[in-house]
Specification:
single chain, ribonucleoprotein, 6% helix, Ribosomal_uL24_CS, mainly beta, extended, eight-stranded antiparallel sheet
Length: 159
């Protein structure tokens, strides 16, 4: 990747892994699918079962060679998130609800403006949180110890 393309990387991604997207350009135009993987370093996404290409793989130790069909990445400008209410492709906007929570909403002409839910796959952790206490973990009694009293100001360092 050259330095010119590095300048044009998307910093605030609106398409997430697990989103239902419609392909708007290319050989699979008009088809929908779930985003399998997001390649942020190249501004590309891989959609399940779409943009299939034949790949010639050489035989090596532990795997067989041959011609395989794999999903190639699509540029993020060639896909749009599907509006959950209308089923049409739409732009994604950010909105804050009354309780202060941040949600994604459908934007654009002919869209419903409904909330696009966050994909369930993002709520699952790939590595579970450790349940046993390690050597670098702080003991719970030290964590719960009260070290500052807001009424008297005790516990503040002398600056």
């Amino acid at each position: 990747m050259g330095w010119k393309s590095a300048q044009k990387l998307i910093h605030h991604w609106k398409i997430l892994r697990g989103d239902n997207v419609m392909i708007i350009r290319g050989k699979d135009k008009g088809e929908t699918g779930l985003v399998k993987r997001v390649v942020r370093s190249q501004n590309r996404v891989i959609v399940e079962g779409k943009n299939l290409v034949k790949k010639h793989i050489k035989q090596g130790q532990g795997h067989e060679g041959g011609i395989f069909t794999v999903e190639a990445p699509l540029h993020v400008s060639n896909v749009q998130v599907v509006d959950p209410a209308t089923g049409k492709p739409c732009k994604v906007g950010i909105k804050y609800l009354e309780d202060g929570s941040k949600v994604r909403v459908a934007r654009g002409i002919g869209t419903s403006g409904s909330i696009i839910p966050r994909p369930e796959i993002l709520k699952m952790r790939t590595t579970p949180r450790p349940t046993v206490v390690g050597p670098k973990d702080t003991p719970i009694d030290v964590v719960l110890e009260k070290t500052y009293d807001p009424t008297t100001g005790k516990g503040m360092p002398d600056l």
